[in-house]
């Protein structure tokens, strides 16, 4: 189990080896990732993790990349933009 963190959680998107998906996801959970979405066929998943734990996710064998989630929420087309 990973050490508790004091940094705020951030969203991340990971690319992992599709042929080892379940194994890698379990290792990521042990490294502190809370999984919020999985796409095993594509080898991608999303989740949240304490910001200072991001390097630990990248060190998991079978992880190809770890990126901060840069999802942007746009207002609906009929709303006024402020």
UniProtKB/TrEMBL annotation:
Residues 3-73 form the Putative peptidase inhibitor domain. This is Putative peptidase inhibitor domain-containing protein. It comes from Streptomyces xiangluensis.
